[in-house]
Design brief:
Layout (H helix, E strand, L loop, with lengths): L2 H17 L4 E2 L6 E4 L9 E5 L18 E8 L1 H4 L1 E7 L8 E7 L3 E6 L5 E4 L6 E2 L1
Antiparallel strand pairs: 1-9, 2-4, 2-8, 3-4, 3-7, 4-5, 5-6
Length: 130
């Protein structure tokens, strides 16, 4: 087997075993979430990252200390340990917003926008890695 083919298989193996989780259903973090509206389409608060956060899997988003986070949902189970939101990328010219979950303990609320009064059931798409 050529060195190139061995290298390619090594990359594929690493991708399958540890890194590439995209395109699959991940375990749910919660069965319910609290949102401002039934579609969880309006941000309920703005927060700022207190520290860098590097996610363990594709359900989560990475955060950099000081980065602004728009929070759309508070996961209801487990005492609101996790929130769902978005951040705008700026690293190396990345312009699109990233969506995902993060621990509530790594951010601080800076502005309340709307009350999270709607309890919404989560579905498989809430935790699907794409």
């Amino acid at each position: 087997m050529s060195a190139r083919r061995v290298c390619l298989w090594g990359v594929v193996f690493l991708c399958v075993v540890s890194v590439c989780q995209a395109g699959r259903q991940m375990p749910k973090l919660s069965n319910k979430k609290m949102c401002a509206d039934a579609e969880c389409s309006h941000p309920i608060l703005i927060a700022r990252a207190l520290e860098d956060y590097y996610p363990g899997d594709c359900r989560f988003i990475s955060l950099r200390q000081g980065q602004v986070v728009y929070v759309y949902a508070l996961l209801k189970d487990r005492g609101n340990m996790f929130w769902a939101g978005s951040v705008q990328g700026s690293y190396y010219g990345e312009q699109e917003a990233r969506l995902g979950h993060f621990p509530s303990s790594v951010v601080e609320e800076t502005h309340a926008l709307m009350p999270a009064t709607n309890e919404v059931m989560t579905d498989n798409w809430d935790f699907y890695c794409n």
